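Repro:
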Amino acid sequence: MALSLLNNASATGAPVRWPGGRGEFSAAGTFGGAAVSLQAQLPDGTYADVGTYTTLVSAGRGGFEIGPAMVRCAISGGGASGMFAQVNLTQPAPAPQQTF
């Protein structure tokens, strides 16, 4: 499953629902000195970077693992343009165990 975060963008994208599990974040485009980061929403509604492997200053990919959350791609600094970013689910979160 792939979720698009940026499509020919130059600014931070809208959030999308991440189902939880392991994933791969990828970004490409004209970075122009900008940093592009995968961010997840915190309980207070603000966003924070997921980790160092998902903050890119040039085209690339990075792995991550988080629970269900709203995620977005943030662009900071520089003059980014024509940016594309997505997350791919590589391993879903395990289903909750039921106890009887």
